[in-house]
Specification:
The complex is a heterodimer of chains A (295) and B (306). Chain A has 295 residues and is mainly alpha-helical. Chain A is built from 15 helices and no strands. Chain B has 306 residues and is mostly helical. The chains are: A mainly alpha (295), B mainly alpha (306).
Chain lengths: 295, 306
């Protein structure tokens, strides 16, 4: 393609501006990484910097050898994300499928019941009182899974719309003639055909479980039950939270590299996202664009 | 006749069973707390629970509005949201237009991935990144950048001056990719023949943007605006609590309704004003969603959310 002079100039300008934007988006993350591999003494002397004098892996070595609390927190986050995401997908799809069947009596009422939760909320105080007193989830793994994130009305509407528009009704009719019940249809037809939307929803659900720190803040006081985000949150105020849990009670207790380890833990917390992002980029993008085409 | 109806109903029983877990979850997670808002009118004590605690009338609200706090948190919540909406939408539209115009498919993908990346990162980690720049002792600004220009160091976490700017920048960095992607989807839906015709008429790039692209984006812009206006009484708790590291001297410029509700909740005897602020937020928020949606419905039914 031959471009006119004006067009070539335009391409140059926008590519320059977008390269700049790309740097602005990525460089702060790079600072996090470089800080995590900077020698502690260099950090204390010169501060966080893109061009440290001395590199060192001490912070990561500390994580691996001395801080069982970090590994446990990581384990809790992984478990919560796995259980939460599977639960979320199950609840969302189980709800979206019946709501996509037009002749189901009471469908309108249930749809409104779902939708209304998007308009009005009781807020933090009643939720907090209910979860802690009636259900007693404080300091349990359920504190991360149950409040707020297990099911969202927005996702139900998104998935229902997808089922309605992309799965032809004739398939259900044919299956029914073959003697399949609704559970069979859900399992054998709806789930496989709904895979694109379910992958997207699952990804975002997993992301919100992985990134959530609020439930940890509200409901967790026991330092043994901290997730990685909750641990990071606590460490901002008190780096000693790490040492308090250190299992290394042998004499060879390592000095905590206080300045670099914050950044190392933060980097470890986003590492899985950075790793999967290039492969799943299109699902993240399509998920957001789906939301744009309103529920 | 009745029998046939029963038969028809029976056929749907499996579907109702499927609905049950979700209905129960929403009942517990969303509807019980809605009933629990009466706590705002009560003198809550733990032993009696929400419903058996004695009524206190409007005492909690009087207490909330008797201090300066209410005005500050409402002002902060509203002003920050207005700034966020304006800046994120303008930059988002500009980025989307540019990204859509990039000829190289590979670069287009790279740019798109880059702007979305911060959106996926937890706000706690974002606060660590901000800390790496602003920390008094070890931050990059105080150690490298400010000395380079011969400027004095700043006690960032004690000095309110820069926080409105810091929060707007942080929020834009983290959130702009979301809107950008929505606008890219909007631009992809515009009929290419509009541009071809405009080109034949000798319209330049600038004119095409103002006369074709932006008018065609109006529906997406309205939908996004509508969603943000409905949420204008809510703030990103993490951004305002976590990024300023809950620093007390910054409260005048970082305290919003959501941070206030949380801090009051954990403060001794604060549950009354906390729930009052929360209920106030829910009711105003609900009203705003209904009104803004109603207005859009009047203008164009297609753009209304419901």
């Amino acid at each position: 393609m031959i471009l006119s002079k004006g067009r070539r100039a335009y391409q140059l300008v926008i590519n320059f501006l977008l390269m700049l934007t790309t740097l602005i988006m990525v460089l702060p993350l790079l600072l996090l990484f470089i800080s995590s591999i900077t020698d502690e003494n260099t950090l204390v002397a010169n501060g966080y910097s893109y061009f440290p004098e001395q590199l060192s892996l001490t912070a990561y070595r500390y994580i691996l050898t001395n801080a069982a609390s970090i590994l446990r927190a990581y384990g809790i986050t992984v478990m919560v994300t796995a259980i939460g995401t599977v639960g979320n997908l199950l609840l969302v799809s189980l709800m979206a499928f019946p709501l996509s069947i037009r002749e189901l009596p009471g469908r309108k009422f249930v749809s409104f019941y779902v939708f209304f939760t998007m308009l009005f909320s009781g807020g933090l105080v009643p939720s907090y009182i209910m979860w802690t007193t009636t259900f007693g989830i404080k300091n349990s793994i359920w504190a991360y899974i149950l409040p707020n994130f297990l099911l969202s009305a927005f996702n139900i509407i998104l998935v229902r719309t997808f089922f309605q528009t992309s799965i032809p009704n004739d398939i259900y009719e044919a299956a029914k003639i073959d003697g399949a019940g609704y559970f069979m249809i859900y399992w054998k037809i709806v789930l496989p055909l709904g895979k694109p939307i379910l992958v997207t929803i699952g990804l975002f659900s997993g992301l919100s479980y992985w990134n959530d720190w609020t439930n940890g803040l509200y409901y967790i006081t026991d330092s043994k039950m901290l997730s990685i985000q909750a641990l990071l949150n606590r460490m901002i105020q008190d780096i000693q939270a790490l040492a308090a849990n250190s299992t290394a009670n042998s004499g060879a207790l390592m000095q905590i590299p206080q300045v670099s380890i914050r950044m190392a833990i933060a980097f470890v917390a986003i590492l899985p996202i950075l790793i999967i992002y290039p492969f799943l980029q299109k699902y993240f993008a399509s998920g957001i664009m789906l939301g744009a085409v309103k529920g | 006749m009745k029998k046939a109806k029963m038969q028809r109903f029976r056929q749907f029983i499996p579907l109702y069973v499927m609905l049950l877990p979700g209905v129960i979850y929403l009942f517990i997670n969303n509807y019980i707390p809605m009933a629990g808002i009466v706590v705002a009118f009560k003198k809550y004590n733990v032993n009696d629970g929400i419903f058996a605690s004695p009524f206190a009338g409007l005492a909690n609200f009087e207490y909330l509005f008797s201090t300066n706090d209410a005005a500050v948190i409402i002002r902060n919540t509203l002003l920050y949201n207005v700034a966020f909406i304006l800046i994120n939408n303008i930059i988002g539209i500009a980025l989307a237009i540019m990204i859509s115009d990039v000829l190289s498919k590979k670069l287009r993908k790279l740019y798109q991935s880059a702007v979305l990346l911060p959106f996926l990162i937890s706000i706690v980690v974002v606060s660590y990144i901000v800390f790496a720049f602003l920390s008094h002792e070890n931050g990059m600004f105080n150690n490298s950048i400010l000395p380079l220009f011969g400027m004095d160091t700043v006690q960032w976490y004690n000095d309110t001056t820069w926080w409105p700017l810091i929060l707007v920048i942080t929020n834009c960095w983290k959130g702009v990719g979301y809107g950008t992607l929505i606008f890219i989807a909007g631009i992809a839906g515009i009929d290419k023949s509009f541009y071809e015709a405009a080109e034949l008429d000798g319209a330049g790039k600038w004119q095409q943007i103002w006369r074709i692209t932006i008018p065609c984006l109006i529906p997406s812009i309205i939908t996004l605006l509508l969603m943000s206006i409905g949420r204008i009484f809510y703030s990103d708790f993490g951004l305002f609590y976590q990024v300023p590291q809950n620093s007390g001297s910054l409260y005048p410029v970082t305290n919003t309704i959501d941070t206030y509700v949380y801090r009051a909740l954990i403060a001794a005897g604060g549950i009354g004003r906390s729930s009052a602020a929360g209920l106030f937020q829910s009711i105003v928020g609900f009203t705003l969603v209904m009104v803004s949606n109603g207005v859009v419905r009047k203008l164009s039914v297609d753009n209304a959310i419901f």
